[in-house]
Amino acid sequence: MKRAILLRFVVILLLALAVSGAFSYYFIGRNMLAHDKSAMLNTIRAVDYALDYGRDLQEQVEKLHAAAMDENSRITVIASDGTVAADSEIDRPDVMENHLEREEVQEAFAKGTGSDTRSSESVGESMLYVAARSAGGDYVVRMAVPYTNLIDYMLTIFPVLLLGTGIAFAVSVILAVRFSDTITTPLNEICEEMEKVRGDQPDFSFKKYRYQELNVISETTMKMAAEIRAHMDQLEKEKKIRQEFFSNASHELKTPITSVRGYAELLDQGFVQDEATKKDFYARIRKEMDNMTNLINDILMISRLEAKEAEVTFSNVRIGPLLTEVFESMEPIAADAQVMLHKECSPVAIEASAKQMRELVMNLVSNGIKYNHPGGNVWVEAWQEKGSLYIRVKDDGCGIGRQEQGRIFERFYRVDKGRSKKIGGTGLGLSIVKHIVEYYSGSIQLESEPGKGSCFTVELPLRKRIPAE
Q1: In whole angstroms, what separates CA 214 from the centre of its chain?
Q2: Nearest alpha carbon to residue 387 among 441, 430, 452, 433
Q3: How far is CA 121 from the centre of its chain?
Q4: Residue 33: pLDDT above 60?
């Protein structure tokens, strides 16, 4: 990567230097040409000042040229009619052709000064001509020097500009190397840190870099690592829960299956002859079969709720009649346990599955009865508030310890395992409640204290808001 950055930087730098150099050569060359024209005009004015136009101009021009001028320069004096009065390169200027049509001469007579570049017919080479009208105005003094084109000036300054360009290039490359190091070094450090992700518990340690974009990479990596770690922890937790679930399900099914097999073998082998005992055995087999059926149904319900595959028929469920129906079903169980049921419900309805709402309330009320004491109470309240349905199920039973409150929604988890076995149930009631609440994007809160009872508060959106799969 560093090599690629340097290569691209060098290419861009060379292109920039080439373009800037070309413009520099051109404009500096033009400036030098303008400077030379200005110098030539100064020389022309000095010659004009030195000439005595009443005497022999040819003799004067030759002497001035020999005494003060470069041999490559040329001085010409042209009369107003275009005839050549004197020329430093020609002994007999009177035989020269008329110069009135020369561009620089016309400009000088018209504007005071003029210039042109062309090949001289007299000397046979390309010349730069600069002319100025004399102080008296009757003559034009012209000076000429050899001139090919603007490249002459560019070639003059080329070595200096080449040296400057070379120094700029060298300095720029050094700066580019340092700049690329400020990018590639942090990236390499970030890559080295990211190699830790192959470990079980990566612990990243990133520096604070001068470029915010690099800090964004490191911060994003930290976030991703935290998310991966949390996801892995969640997968591990789910794996553990799944293993416990299969173990508990196997254990829960094993007991009734063993009982059914035992009773069936006794009946099949003819060890039981008494009709009353046979009926008792048949009743026990049916009870165990019912327990297994209930357990399997509960497991299937939880699985469908988790996979969002439950076949749900939504309707406008009125909570008041629903509570009345649940109380009618639970009255016999409550009477046996000597527990009083109380309900208070404002007129409220929710868009949901009547079957799931019944299952939710029935499991909470059932738990309030089972984990209570003779003479105890279960209160159920339902009301509407800020677009949500609230259902509160409260009892004054045995309560739940704080250390166990975090696990009561786990499948097959029982606070008092001995008592739970005696009062029956699959151990999946609260887990089903939790999954139904989550299915409707709701929440459930528990307040409990040992010996003072428990209070479950469910909040559900009144309108269907099922999370996307």
Answers
A1: 12
A2: 441
A3: 74
A4: yes
Is the alpha carbon torsion for 253, 254, 258, 264 positive or negative?
Answer: positive
Q: Check residue 21 and give its pLDDT.
A: 64
Sort 101 into a burial class: Cβ within 10 Å, 0-12 / 13-18 / 19+.
Answer: exposed
Q: Specify whether the CB–CB gap between 299 and 428 falls below 8 A.
A: yes
- C-alpha 68: how far from its chain's center? 76
pTM of the model: 0.47
Rounding to the nearest 10 degrees, give the CA dihedral for residues 450, 455, 459, 460.
Answer: 100
R_g of the chain computed on alpha carbons: 54
Nearest to 21 by CA among 150, 152, 159: 159
Three-state secondary-structure class, residue 342: strand
Mode of pairing for the β-strands spanning 349-352 and 388-395: unpaired
Q: Which two tokens stand for residue 71?
A: 């041999």
58 has a pLDDT exceeding 80? yes
Most confident among 149-158, 248-257, 336-345 (mean pLDDT): 336-345
Which residue stretches of 337-416 are H helix? 354-370, 402-405
Phi–psi pair at 73, nearest 5 degrees: -90, 165
- How far is 327 from 349, CA to CA, in rounded Å? 18
Three-point CA angle 437, 441, 446, nearest 5°: 45
In the block, residue with structure tokens 């000036």: 153
pLDDT tens-digit series, residues 208-238: 666 666 677 667 777 777 777 777 787 887 7
